[in-house]
Amino acid sequence: MADPPGCCSTCATCLLCPYSCQWITAKKEKRKGLRTTKYDCSWFLFLFCVFLFTLVWLYFAIIILNDFHNFNEFIFRQKKLWLDWSLVLLIATAVLISYSSVLLVLALCLQLCGQPLKLHWVHKVLLILTALVVAAAFTGLGIKWAEEWKSAWISLQATGPFLHIGAVGGMTLLAWPLASFIYRTRSTGLRVFVLLVYCAAMIALYLAPLGITSPCIMEENQLPPKPALVGHRGAPMLAPENTLMSLRKAVDCDVQVFETDVMVSADGVPFLMHDEELTRTTNVQAVFPERAALNSTAFNWTDLQQLDAGSWFLERRPFPTVQNLSPGDRQEAAEQRIPSLEQALEAAKHSNLSIMFDLRPENHSDYQNFVNVTLGVILQSGIPLQQVLWLPDGFREDVKQQAPGVQHVYGRKRVENEKEPVLHVNLPYQDMSSEEIRQYRQDNISVNLYVVNQPWLFSVLWCSGVSSVTTNACQVLKEMEHPIWLLPSSTYFMIWIVVDCVSLLIIIWAFVLMK
């Protein structure tokens, strides 16, 4: 295998050293007997597959960031350890993708320079470990977090057109080393096989847009109104969740609904709290260490008022935005206490803000009394009942009789032969397709989807016509005046044709040039 013109011995040596872990000069007598064997080619193919496998995992890692706060909460409930695991995920993924990328680039450069692809055994072991780690990550995702597969499918509606362009570009760049390999190999069968596989892959990529669908491929005048924002436990990126400060920050973000969770104390006072235990969002372990593991409903209101519901937010920093808080906001956050439902209703009434809540825990033996006590507080608060969105399914008929003006929101899709029409639904964003959202919109059914934090996801749901979204990132989505991208079908068709034609011309030019 003679060196092609322009490949200096120094460059060849610098490429061989990190790839083969051997300091071999490019002189022929030093390289005598070193050739790229079929065994070496199989390891190059494995390297390429590991790179693609890791690249797919990187895509998944970016997509699941929308829901990663739920994972952090899950780990805390299991291990009582708070850490932003998204940083661990991204750092580990970056290391794996960087390693496989560097090796792949080295291999392609060696092929272009006519050097042997002698992958060192250390790299082989590390590549196998990389494949096993990524496979374990995918397996864990499928077992413990299966709904994220639906999230990935939805993400393709936002990224599909751009992934297509990127894939065509990447495969087009492979034309140079591929042409070098084909012209150098002596095996006609291998040459034909590789060429056929490459051509089949390119044809599939050229025709891929036929299967790409996105609600954001539409005319500008067809774009539905921007979805309303529902503050998930207020504005939890700007203030401790389920506090009056969080409610006020949500109002500043122009949210229309404050979404929260209600529990009832041992002496019958409804208060705002999401977790069944108080350990994550209060200092109960310091104030009542012997009772810290008890259910939140086991504490009376006097005990609850002694707890600090804000300092944890500054200490654990559940979101990166905490470090950007002003000194005044930090002081206010540190002074937060658990608010009663009465206080939250009063604040919502003065801000003309609707309030939507779950009543927990649903399996409590005294749940009917919880419903009655909560209804009593709502009716006494003086808040207009149309501003109250009732989520709990238990004893819903009693609620309709005692407070007929309350709006009922259902955590399920509509079914045939409903006794009463369903006007509001509240579902995970993974549970409704774009087609179902459009159909509900046509039937005047309000659809709220949760939890939507990333602009790409908000853009897809906006284009689909969703009525509102529950979000942790109200300060981000508030600033969006338009979906991230919106393309008329004619424009996308033109981009598709131009990209494919340019790619084909570059591939032909690469093969002619390398010959």
TrEMBL record:
Residues 227-481 form the GP-PDE domain. One of its GO terms (biological process) is lipid metabolic process. InterPro entries: GP_PDE_dom (IPR030395), PLC-like_Pdiesterase_TIM-brl (IPR017946). Keywords: Glycoprotein, Hydrolase, Membrane, Transmembrane, Transmembrane helix. The keyword Mitochondrion does not apply. Belongs to the glycerophosphoryl diester phosphodiesterase family. This is GDPD2 inositolphosphodiesterase.
